[in-house]
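# nightly structure sweep
# worker-07 picked up a monomer target from the shared queue
# config: single-sequence mode, recycle default, output format = structure tokens
# input follows
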Amino acid sequence: MANIFFKFWRIGSILLLTVVLLFCYASLPDSIAVGFNEAGDPANFINKQQFFYWSAGVIVGLNFLFGVLENALVKLDFRRLLGNSSWGRNPGSVRNFLKGWFSALLAFINTYLVFVLLGLYNINSHKEQKLDFNYNYLLILGVLILLLILMYLPYKLMATQAPDED
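# output follows
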């Protein structure tokens, strides 16, 4: 059941990320502030087309690379890799778990990128581009959640029992 939820979240987050990227491209100014000094004034700018292509490349690249990694890991022989553990005796359960875990990871990364793009849009949508709001909490929260998701994989495979059914 969780795999279905994360798969739909993954697909929905890709669609939402595409819509937000196109919205940002259409409504941002030609010069986008991406770096700020200590006073909050913009210091580094990037061209709107360059921003679009870099963002689209990161989105497509991450989703493609994680998809390739997922397909490669699912094809492994888990009986040899995990030994006599309950997960090693149920390779179908490992495959289902990995598919759900990769869907959850990509869904979170895509959702996080949506918030990054919306934050960048919020900063650049005002006439005078000034960083008047601190977005550091978003960075810290995102890294903490990403670490939790990454650490869940070895915890689940090493500290829990595999479900009986595939």
